[in-house]
Each structure stands twice: as C-alpha cells, then as structure tokens.
Write a structure and sequence with these properties.
The structure holds two protein chains of two kinds. Chain A is of the alpha/beta class. Chain A has helices at 37-45, 62-65, 67-71, 88-98, 105-114, 130-143, 160-175; strands at 2-8, 11-17, 25-31, 52-54, 56-57, 60-61, 73-76, 148-152, 179-183, 194-200. In chain A, 38% of the residues are buried. Chain B has helices spanning 2-18, 20-41, 45-68, 70-77, 80-86, 91-120, 125-152, 159-167, 172-185, 193-222. By secondary structure, chain B is mostly helical. The chains are: A alpha/beta, B mainly alpha.
C-alpha cells in the first residue's frame, strides 16, 4: 500500500500512510474512536475510494484486479451481513455460493457445530441473540478460502468462549500464511506468525 | 454463474415468502386502485372501455413502484449488500437475480390478476388477452428501470419520493405503448403487433443495460 490519504468531509483522517503486509501476518490497527480505522479497512476492501494513493495486492492495483482481488478477500464489518429471516444454515449456504466455493453440506454443518450453534439451525437468525448472530457471521471465516481477512471489531458482543474460538481461527489462518487485518481495542495473542501494529491518529 | 443467479433468486423468493405481507400489499394496492375508478366514474360501459387500459397500466406502474424502495434497502441495512459487492461474482448478475425475484413477486401477480380487473371495465376477451401479453412484456421493464432508481436513491433520506420523481417519467414509453396496445385491440383493422414488438424491444434494451447501470449505481451508493 502506498501513500494513502483519506478525508471524510473536511476532516483529514490520515495521510501519507504507507505500509506493506506480508503473508502470515496479523496487522492490528489501533486508534481512538473516529481516527479512521473503519475507513481504512473499507478502503482496503474497495468499499471506499481513498482521496489519493493506491492499494496494491501482489504488486497490482486492487482496482485493476477487481474480481481476482475480491476472491482473495473476506470482509467482516460492523453489520453482520446475514439475513434475519433466513436460518443460520441458509445464510451460510448463500454466503458460500456467493464466494464461489462449492461447499459440501457437511462442511457447513461442521462450521455451525464449531461455533456452537447446533440446535439453533432451524431458527431464523432474528430469533437469535446478538452474540449468536455474530457467531453465525463468524462461521463464514471457518468456511472461507480467502487469503486476506479484513475484520472490523470482530470481538464485540462475543462471550469468552467465542472470543477464544475467534482467536484460534485467526491464529490458524496466520499460521497457514494468511493475512489478517483487524481493528479491536483488546490485545490479541498469537502463537505463531508475526503481529504488526498500526496506530492511527497519533 | 448460473448457480449464483439461482442462489440469489431463491434467496430473495424465500425471504419474500417468509414475509408475505410485502407481496400481498402490492397486489391488493393494484386491485383496489383499479376498482376505485368504476366506482368513481360510474358503470357506463363505453366510458369504462375507454378508461380501462390506461387505468390498469397506471395502477400497474404505481404498484410496481411501491415495492421498489425495498429492493436493495433491506440488504443495505443488514450488510448483505456490502457482502454481495465484495464477492468475486459480477455484481450485475446478482442485481439481475434480485430484479427477477422482484418481478416474479410484484410483476407476475399483476399479469395473472389482469383478466379479473379487465372484466370490471367490460373489456373483450381479445383485449384482455392483449393486455396480459402487454403486461407480461411491460412489467419486467418497470422492474428493470426501477432498479436503477432504487440503486441511486439507496440510503438517502426521503428516498421514496425522490425515487418516484426519478423513475415515473422513465416509465412513460411503457405506459404509452402498453395502454396503446390494448386500445388498438378494440379497433377493427388495427394491428397490435407493432405495439407489442416495441414493448419487446424495450424489454431487451432494459435487460441489457439496467443491470449494468444499477450495479454501477449501487457501488456509488455504498461508499
């Protein structure tokens, strides 16, 4: 990534941001509320166009790569991105199809079992609690084959067990050479791979 | 690619079936608006025959407008639209699937109920048949054009009103030729085929451009 500059309205959020992330790295983006963490993450995904600068993936501009870049990308934002009227299974099936993965039904069940939602699979997700909805959304991480995970505040509303699970998932992903970019206000422990930190607004 | 199209189509249909009120409101709105006219202008056969085609088409335009606002808004609010934009699939295919679902839920019921409302206007069997064919060709165009407007006004406050101001003028050609076909069918010697051919041409043009235009508009709206 080179010379990224972002404004929201008249306010300069960050400028001259310049960093590279290699495979097998966890990039922990930190900063006060309103310092532009979400904006940075959305720019990484291409949901937001930076005022200047360019985001490159394997040396090529992500704008030019388009679909090839999006195949390697998994974004997890403030919104869970699941339909309240569909059950957990249906949500995951749709997500897997859209990601272009040919998922075995058993893989989806296994993912649901791993996040501890077996027994709730017949309920539309609007009947689930906030934390359980988040768990359904996080099951996508288990199913995903993407190399780059962009996670915006993934730990909010999760209980201790789910936080542990998520940390394990992130650690596994990094250990397999994946890249994780996340924002959170808590410390994330990693057993292998390296952690880099980026402070915004300082 | 076809698999993705089916997946999104089935998803939207399942969602609609779990929330049937949205579908039924559109249909009943159409029936009620069409039924109000005979009550208002009296039951004189000749007046109703003249009014019929126009009234049915205007009601169809308004009814298809009703559900348009929700076409992308529901997905926008819970973040699923964001996820769709970020998948490796061409967005226009996903948009086309959503539009198809929208048409199946709001356009097709209007076509099927048309004989019933046509009878209120003393339309002949031939005229009703032509009206059904015209609606079958015309209502998908309404959904396709409407999707562009829905994508443009996504996330705006008071988007509903703006949407109608943007979209209703674009519906005029469909209205003119759709109602024209039915009127022409009542005249001896007149040929309805040119009208239907034109509606078909609108449909092909809209099918080609509307998904592309809507997906471009969606990308702008999401930022």
């Amino acid at each position: 990534m080179t010379q990224l500059e972002c404004r929201r309205g008249d306010r300069m959020l960050f400028s001259g941001l310049d960093f590279a992330v290699a495979g097998g790295t966890l990039l922990h983006v930190r900063g006060a509320n309103g310092s532009g963490k979400t904006t940075l993450l959305r720019s990484l995904c291409g949901l937001f166009t930076p005022d200047s600068g360019e985001i490159r993936w394997n040396g090529e501009s992500t704008r030019r790569l388009g679909e090839d870049y999006r195949r390697d990308l998994l974004y997890f934002g403030h919104l869970n991105g699941i339909k309240a009227d569909l059950t957990g299974i249906e949500n995951l099936r749709v997500a897997a199809t859209l990601d272009g993965d040919r998922m075995e039904e058993s893989a989806i069940w296994a993912a649901l079992a791993r996040i501890g939602l077996v027994g709730f699979e017949d309920l539309p997700t609007r009947m689930l609690s906030q934390g359980q909805k988040k768990r359904v959304a996080l099951a996508r991480l288990i199913l995903s084959t993407a190399l780059l995970w962009v996670l915006d505040e993934p730990f909010t509303a999760l209980d201790v067990g789910a936080v542990d699970l998520l940390e394990t998932l992130i650690a596994e992903h990094v250990a397999h050479g994946g890249i994780v970019v996340l924002t959170t206000h808590q410390e994330v422990g990693l057993t292998s791979g390296q952690v880099e930190r980026l402070h915004l607004g300082s | 690619m076809l698999r993705v199209f089916w997946c999104v189509l089935l998803r939207d249909l399942t969602l609609a079936l779990r929330r049937r009120t949205d579908v039924l409101t559109t249909l009943f709105f159409f029936i009620i608006v069409v039924s109000l006219f005979p009550l208002g202008v009296g039951t004189e056969r000749q007046i109703l025959q003249i009014l019929g085609p126009g009234v049915v088409w205007v009601a169809a335009l308004l009814a298809s407008m009703l559900a348009l606002e929700r076409l992308f808004a529901a997905d926008y609010e819970d973040g699923t639209l964001e996820q769709m934009v970020l998948t490796a699939q061409p967005l226009s295919i996903l948009v086309l699937a959503k539009i198809t679902a929208h048409w199946l839920l709001t356009g097709l019921p209007l076509v099927l109920i048309a004989p019933l409302v046509g009878m209120q206007y003393h339309l002949s069997d031939d005229a009703i048949l032509i009206m059904m064919v015209a609606l079958l060709l015309g209502t998908p165009v309404l959904s396709l054009i409407g999707a562009i407007g829905a994508a443009l006004t996504l996330g705006l406050r008071g988007g509903g009103i703006l949407l109608s101001l943007l979209i209703l003028p674009l519906y005029i050609p469909v209205l003119v030729y759709g109602a024209g076909a039915v009127t022409a069918s009542g005249i001896d010697m007149a040929d309805t085929r040119p009208y239907l051919a034109l509606l078909g041409a609108f449909l092909v043009a809209a099918l080609t451009f509307a998904p592309l235009a809507s997906s471009a508009a969606l990308k702008i709206s999401i930022e």
